[in-house]
Design a protein that fits this description.
Layout lengths: L1 H12 L7 E5 L6 E8 L4 E10 L6 H19 L10 H11 L24 E8 L3 E6 L4 H9 L4 E9 L2 H4 L10 E2 L2 H8 L3 E3 L8
Parallel strand pairs: 1-3
Antiparallel strand pairs: 2-3, 4-5, 4-6, 5-7, 6-8
Helix pairs in contact: 1-2, 2-3
Length: 208
């Protein structure tokens, strides 16, 4: 990972990006992500971590494209560049320039099999969000999955999101969320809810 990062950093970012920490994971919900800590009072972002999932079998070009996707996020965050959204005009402008060089960087990459978007009519899509210290759940509008994941990946302390579906009436009383909102839940209550839910296991990840 380090060698690939340094090559891409030199070729496309003039080696302006400090080498981050690197982490490999078996995450199902993404192929790569970039996280950092932020001190707004000191106008400082630090402890950047580039994570890549090893769960899926993808070629070198796709792996490099995933890394470039995360490096664009890194470049925008490190330089405090204001964008219209997590994948807004600035992000897309850089992405288009890199893709003109032969890469295949995408805003999102969905699996060919089961994804959080695919669920039977009447079912509710539920996300269980694991943070460093707390766990939340949310009944999510399927059309806003990409936006919600993009927002989560920028949150300090975010670990992962697990997906479930349920047709239980309990979940039908909740308004479908379109933003980063969730209900804090303890481990015992979560185990109770899991009895009413069916997990969704994507066959591939997502680039967010």
């Amino acid at each position: 990972m380090r060698a690939s990062f340094e090559t891409l950093n030199q070729r496309y970012f003039k080696s302006q990006l400090p080498t981050p920490a690197f982490r490999l994971t078996r995450a199902r919900t993404y192929l790569g992500n970039m996280r950092w800590k932020e001190d707004r009072l000191r106008h400082r972002r630090y402890d950047f971590v580039l994570t890549m999932s090893t769960l899926y079998d993808y070629g070198e070009k796709e792996m490099m494209s995933v890394m470039l996707h995360e490096m664009i996020h890194y470049y925008i965050a490190y330089n405090w560049i204001k964008d219209t959204s997590p994948h807004g005009q600035v992000f897309r402008g850089i992405m288009d320039k890199l893709n003109a060089c032969g890469w295949d960087i995408r805003i999102s990459h969905h699996s060919k099999g089961d994804t959080p978007r695919q669920h039977a009519p009447g079912n509710r899509l539920i996300g269980v969000i694991s943070m460093e210290k707390e766990t939340y759940f949310a009944v999510i509008n399927p059309g806003y999955v990409g936006r919600i994941i993009a927002g989560l990946l920028g949150l300090p302390g975010f670990k992962e999101i697990s997906w479930y579906i349920s047709d239980d009436d309990y979940f039908k009383k909740f308004q479908l969320t379109r933003s980063l909102r969730g209900i804090k839940i303890g481990s015992e209550r979560l185990e109770e809810l899991k009895k009413m839910m069916k997990p969704i296991v994507p066959k591939e990840g997502m680039i967010i």
